[in-house]
Amino acid sequence: MDIIVTSIFVEDQDKALNFYTETLGFVKKHDVPAGGARWITVVSPNEQNGTELLLEPNGHPAAKEYQEKLFADGIPVTMFGVEAIQEEYERLLKNGVTFTMKPTDMGDITLAVFDDTCGNLIQIIQQ
Questions:
Q1: How many Cβ atoms are within 10 Å of 45's Cβ, its own excluded?
Q2: How far is residue 2's CA from residue 100's CA, in Å, rounded to a whole number?
Q3: Number of Cβ atoms within 10 Å of the Cβ of 91
């Protein structure tokens, strides 16, 4: 069994697509109509046939409440791996990304947390 798609809730799909592609550097894989929204996925530029991240609208009240509570409690909704966290941190800062936790050594890993501007906190980690 393989993980092929995972999702995060977003407040605005267009804004999320722009942030995840233009700011973070992911590649758009799918963008097709899906009812009143769109099926938008992005992938790592290094693994374009790998796991897709679905930018899912938070239109359902439970989804919106879940997203808001995690954000308010400072809990990241997902984690992305990076090769050089300090370089990635500095690159994202230059692109206007707001961090809630700068790179912090946690023994075998270093992690940082940022606001994706779409209602989520995202953790990056260097192992």
A1: 10
A2: 32
A3: 15
67 with 84: CB under 8 angstroms?
Answer: no
**Which is the CATH superfamily of the domain at 5-126?**
2,3-Dihydroxybiphenyl 1,2-Dioxygenase, domain 1 (3.10.180.10)
Q: How far is residue 61's CA from residue 58's CA, in Å, rounded to a whole number?
A: 8
H/E stretch holding 40 reads strand 37-43
- CA-based nearest residue to 88, from 46, 4, 25, 13: 25
**Pairwise CA distance, residues 78 & 31, whole Å:** 21
Whole-model pTM?
A: 0.95
Per-residue pLDDT tens digits for 47-91: 999 999 999 999 999 999 999 999 999 999 999 999 999 999 999
Domain ranges across the chain = 5-126
